Amino acid sequence: MKAELLYEGKAKKVYCVHEDVNSLVLSYKHDATAFNGEKRDVFEGKGRYNNLISAAIFTYLSEQGVASHFKHVLNDTEQLVERTTIIPLEVVVRNIAAGSITRRLGIEEKTAFPSPLVEFYYKDDQLGDPLINDAHALLLTDVTSEEIEQIKQLSLLVNQKLQPFFAEVGLQLIDFKLEFGRNYSNAIVLSDEISPDTCRLWDIKTGAKMDKDVFREGLGDLVEVYEAILNRLEAVK
Ligand code: TMP
Ligand code: ASP
Questions:
Q1: Secondary structure of residue 203 in the 3-state scheme
Q2: 3-state secondary structure of 160
Q3: Which atom of ligand 1 is nearest to the CA of 36?
Q4: Which of 76, 167, 207, 227 is positioned for an S-S bond with 48, CB 3.0–4.6 A?
């Protein structure tokens, strides 16, 4: 069913679909990169875990009334999604301080925010995905100020839904990144992936990091950690 390759990113390939202009195939690679591609490695099996974890998360969100581009899993490393044009914004929601905000603002890791923070980064590898404000988003993308509000509210809703989802399997949702696209009727749709590549997840009991920080910070075996997350999610299905 796959037709030509439309786009290849650091962690996925995107294909058109024969005779279905409104669908795309997302093909998850086994590659991991960090620090804007400066650190990279290949982890056999990683693509399967991200494909199946992202599918489980989008399925749950849809059951909770939060629509996304996700349609269904095709095989171990591929899923069918609604075709969207990605808006070049990375929307990060933070519950607990970790990662770039600790370095940028000198906030100690593990500091809880009184309410979740929503941040925009401009999706541009050459610029290193810089942090931007709403006015910059209006200037650099085709979103309107109403759509900026809509994107923020949707991102906070995803946070509200995902915190108990992960808590049920013993994981604390520290922060995560979302991307949105426009579908054929120009509506804004939650897109891309939600996986341990795009979330920070800490084990509630031990505090252990169970996400891509294992690779970023060289803490252990990334594939083992991703496998554990999928196993936990499948155990409560
Ligand atoms: P940060 O602390 O590095 O800004 O990351 C915040 C969250 O966004 C974290 O859960 C990881 C995720 N993220 C991505 O999914 N892609 C990226 O390129 C970056 C920098 C972060
Ligand atoms: N995804 C980015 C990269 O590949 C950054 C990150 O996730 O840390 O470099």
A1: strand
A2: helix
A3: 18
A4: 76
Given CA atoms 1, 189, 28, 234 in this order, what sign does their dihedral have? Answer: negative
Output the pLDDT for position 218: 97
> Does any ligand 2 atom lie closer than 6 A to the CB of residue 133?
no
The pLDDT score that the predictor gives to residue 78 is 98
**Binding site membership of 123 for ligand 2 (Cβ less than 6 Å):** no
- Per residue in 181-222, pLDDT (tens digit) is 999 999 999 999 999 999 999 999 999 999 999 999 999 999
Whether residue 195 has its Cβ less than 6 Å from ligand 2: no
Taking the model in full, what pTM does it have? Answer: 0.98
Residue 172 has which token pair? 């604390």
What atom of ligand 2 comes closest to residue 198's alpha carbon?
7
Closest by CA to 161, choosing from 199, 187, 128, 216, is 199
